[in-house]
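seq as requested:
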Amino acid sequence: MRSRTASVPRVAGVAAALLGLLLSLLSFSTPAQAAATGLRIENGRLVEASGNDFVMRGVNHAHTWYPGETQSLADVKSLGSNTVRVVLSDGHRWTKNSAQDVASVIARCKANRLICVLEVHDTTGYGEESAAGTLDHAADYWIGLKEVLAGQEDYVIINIGNEPWGNTNPAGWTNPTIAAVKKLRNAGFAHTIMVDAPNWGQDWQGVMRANAKSVYDADPTGNLIFSIHMYSVYDTAQEITDYLNAFVNAKLPILIGEFGGPADQYGDPDEDTMMAVAQQLRLGYLAWSWSGNTDPILDLAIEFDRTRLSSWGQRVFNGANGIAATSKEATVFSSGGGDTTPPTAPGTPTASEVTSSSVKLAWSAATDATGVTGYDVVRVSGATETTATTTTGTSATVTGLSPSTSHTFAVYARDAAGNKSPRSATVTVTTSPGGSPSACGVGYRVTSSWPGGFQGEIVLRNTGTSAINGWTLRWAFPDSQRVTNLWGGTATQSGSAVSVAAASYTATIPAAGSVTLGFTATRGSANPSPTAFTLNGNACSVS
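struct tokens:
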């Protein structure tokens, strides 16, 4: 039996077919319907075109103020980064980065096998900062770069505007953010778009957290990721875990787009928890910033020199849950036919100049078809490796070692494409006895507790007149407490006795300086504090 539609006159059927084809073509060419083709969001997570999760591990680089520091991208890659967030200007507040310049930045990112997050910085603090520009103006800048950005969806994320609202009426952030996202989609952009929070990026009033779903739903492609900036507002583990888990539980994509660690006049950020929770939840993080800050306390590298990492830089690159230990290169670079051949293994390291807290290591060079760019020296303990230092040469001095202790080291080589060599053979060194006696003070406190567990903090102070280089802190718990995780050092526990060896980034304590350790532990019904601590065998005062 023929259907009723089959009896439609032929001319009407042809007209309907033509109309359908026209509508189909119009729908296909509507920019707002552009499908994500490269990096994209799936089920609340950032993935590559291949479908593999991509977890950003990297730093921010102030390109717009230091356009001559082009080596920086290779340097951050050599230290393990898989992503770099690049500061640009749309011309509203600083000198506009041209299309040619942005194209060069993208090319350098790709040459160094880095995912490139591009951001407009002129929007910083809008509503409170009188010089700040609008998100709408920033969106126009991106549209002006469309020819440069087209086809780069596998490699580039567009961060519309940095910290695009201050503390004045932060509720005003939501609608302009939605409008800017829609403006880019209507212009045909299929890239992953990143949006920063208000309150100078820290969202301490919860505006982004409360409105994230509506902003996300306004993107017709669903290819949107939220960025929280964590500084002194985030000085407790609870604040950090609560904020990040709120997004993860709602299946809304998020990363820590900027964060700091050093204490400032506003407070002391808890970078250890930020990095630990990001690793636990498999969320990205991008540390602020490579170099060139007005306040150099936040410089990861001193004067843009990758061989002179600050204590902040050592923490970010080589510390617990740091970039060297957790970063994985985007698979698009290996699948794209680039260099995938690693260097040969370096020669077996030899040790010299052994002291109670340091050793100099040297090795023969590795070889590589495109050139070795650096070496990673690691401490080996069973199946565990910890990065001790990095260098571009074939020797390095490792500091911060405990006295009268056996230490095992090995070396890896890296090439310009990010390929890592097989590990060298190992060398074992025993440091000399007696690290220098030091006057010390310890502050111990419980920062939070719950049934069966608690979180604690130990401030270790050098009350002497010379620096402490390398240390081991010991104490005994008076009850049944057991450390489950510790940051700032490496903990071992036997019965009630706890021993903590310095991490590379906490090993040196200047005269009158201090380092802070944090830990979680289990407990019984009572939780009395330890009353005695020793540092390198010397008793410390307790407060």
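DSSP finds twelve helices and 31 strands in the chain.
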